[in-house]
Design a protein that fits this description.
This protein is α+β, with helices and mostly antiparallel strands. Helix content is 33%, strand content 22%.
Length: 585
């Protein structure tokens, strides 16, 4: 079936079920950002391959809402189909929830898969007067070759590398729950489960997690996932039960209080709890989320090592590119970087799909090159190269904007404005209790002064050999739901301002940084950032006269550090590039 035929078939199933609309939010039963093939429903129905977006199909409309990262990409991928794009941010912003509330204000039934509808989302629909129906997934009736749920083997990380054993982490979770009067902890967030048990998997591309639910009780720990995973790992402090047994298990609970995150627990699990006797629900973010966000010293050291290894690969790669040994396209240059990372024995794979956008493609924030769009890198232009790796001891995420040929004055000035914001955030000293929301303006300020901006977040948390996007901390103009999260020592975040001029060029500069203590004065405790990423900036794009002496010193000091830590590790034919790329401004 083509896209239009799929939409038509879906409408047939909607009619049979008495539904006036069907929602596809693109997530899985765990509210994962990236999903395995079975839950690529949004991609299957619409052809849009981005990582975020909401599809709503009614009897006469097929709509998809995306954010500013995907405006250009989505418009291109749905062209010629029955789908229409809507924007969730920017001057033409609209909301899928508001659309449903307006279109179906008389109790018409709106359907969605119960597995992909989280408790909090259902509450938001209900609050708008939408008659949401959490049902079995009717896509199963038309998606005849839908992939099965994966059950790949898991691996156990060494407790010394993780800093704590699973039982120590479980006891910490129990202690926090006990203080709040909670008996059980229901966890469906995949990176939380992997972190708590020091396990890693391969069910989802680029994210080392496995599909499971975890139920921690006062004297039991039950992991709901296929037992076939444990070919080389012996479960120790937890019992392994079938993945689908979780709903029935929850129904057996009696007279207890269960802690759960309504943003990460789906309605199928909630139905199981509703069948239990005398169960009280305590809602809140998983304790494990806050615990894993603050890296312990073993995890931080692992992250530092991972970034040095990644820096070696980046410099070897950049040296080869600068030597002009090969003709590249967007796809082939991404492959060349991947090949370089694979030279390191501790490299496990990418932490996300590499973004390589040349010239006008760089203005597409999360551009993904395909065989059809693959652009030859020739002549003069900028390449936005956003990539990362999973290593045995940590996760990396780095963006560099590379110059090919000669730069225009506009490109140089734009790059330098982005660099100034990048440096300002990295250098900031801030008092304890400060959130990333409060710091976001630092990265935007120089662009704003010129009447320019960018609309994606400035910084996201990064996991320890886990998700490249990890909460709850972030640096963003948007506050999101709930109270802003204060930055704490041990938290790792990205520092990645950018600038995107449609049809011309894009620029983004990204390092990962760790929150660390700066000083303690009569005004309290102050924090700052330790830079983890080790890779030169693009010196030929820096307008030195636009930098203050303090900013010049920052760039020179950073480059000196990069040279010192990498010079003895990079290839012989990369040493000269590294020396030249890190010369004082």
């Amino acid at each position: 079936m083509d896209i239009n035929e799929k939409v038509s078939a879906l409408r047939g199933e909607m009619e049979k079920a008495g539904l006036k609309a069907w929602i596809i939010n693109g997530t899985d039963p765990h509210q994962s950002e990236y999903v395995c093939d079975r839950w690529h429903a949004r991609r299957w129905i619409s052809g849009f391959t981005g990582s975020a977006g909401t599809v709503i199909v009614t009897m006469d409309k097929a709509l998809i809402w995306v954010d500013s990262r995907y405006f250009v990409q989505c418009a291109a991928q749905i062209a010629g189909t029955t789908f229409e794009m809507r924007k969730v941010d920017g001057p033409e912003a609209s909301s899928p929830v508001d659309f449903l509330a307006k279109e179906f204000s008389h109790g018409e039934k709106v359907g969605i898969s119960a597995e992909t509808l989280m408790i909090s989302a259902k509450n938001r629909y209900n609050a708008k007067g939408i008659n949401i129906q959490a049902t079995a997934d009717i896509l199963d009736n038309i998606w005849t070759d839908r992939p099965q749920m994966p059950q790949n083997p898991v691996t156990r990380m060494d407790d010394e590398l993780c800093g704590l054993s699973p039982i120590q982490k479980i006891e910490n979770i129990r202690a926090l729950g006990k203080a709040a009067g909670e008996d059980y902890h229901l966890i469906s967030s995949l990176d939380d489960i992997a972190w708590t048990l020091n396990l890693r998997g391969t069910d989802i591309d680029d994210t080392p997690v496995f599909l499971a639910h975890l139920l921690i009780g006062p004297d039991s720990v039950k992991l709901f996932t296929p037992k076939a995973r444990f070919t080389d790992v012996t479960p120790d402090c937890y019992e392994v039960l079938p993945y689908d047994a979780i709903e029935d298990e929850l129904a057996t609970l009696k007279d207890v209080t269960v802690r759960l995150n309504p943003d990460r627990i789906n309605m199928r699990l909630k139905n199981g709890l509703d069948k239990a006797s005398g169960v009280k629900v305590s809602e809140g973010r998983e304790y494990s989320t806050d615990l894993k966000a603050v890296k312990n010293e073993a995890e931080l050291e692992g992250m530092r090592i991972a970034h040095i290894l990644d820096g070696v690969a980046m410099v070897n790669f950049l040296a080869m590119v600068k030597r002009n040994e090969y003709d590249f396209t967007e796809l082939s240059i991404a492959k060349a970087l991947s090949d370089e990372r694979e030279m390191e024995e501790d490299y496990l794979g990418p932490s996300f799909s590499t973004i390589a956008g040349f010239a006008e493609h760089g203005a597409v924030v999360h551009y993904s090159a395909t065989e059809e769009t693959d652009k030859v890198i020739s002549g003069s232009g900028l390449l936005v190269l956003d990539s990362g790796g999973q290593y045995t001891c940590g996760t990396t995420d780095i963006t560099r904007t590379l110059l090919f040929g000669e730069a225009t004055q506009e490109q140089k000035e734009d790059y330098t404005l982005v660099l100034k914001g990048h440096l300002a955030l990295a250098a900031q000293v801030f008092p304890k209790g400060t959130s990333g929301h409060q710091l976001d303006v630092l990265a935007h300020q120089f662009l704003w002064q010129k009447g320019m901006s960018y609309f994606h977040g400035t910084g996201h948390g990064v996991g320890f050999r886990l998700s490249v996007h990890e909460g709850p901390q972030r640096v963003s103009a948007a506050q999101g739901t709930g109270a802003p999260v204060a930055l704490q020592p041990g938290m790792v975040i990205s520092d990645e301002p950018g600038l995107y001029k449609e049809g011309k060029h894009g620029i983004r500069i990204e390092n990962l940084v760790a929150v660390t203590e700066a000083m303690k004065t009569e005004f309290g405790q102050f924090y700052t950032f330790e830079v983890l990423t080790a890779c030169p900036y693009e010196r030929d794009l820096i307008v030195k006269d636009m930098l203050t002496q303090e900013e010049i010193d920052m760039v020179d000091d950073y480059h000196r550090w990069v040279r010192e830590v990498l010079i003895d590790m990079v290839n012989e034919d990369a040493k000269q590039y590294l020396i030249e790329a890190t010369q004082p401004l």
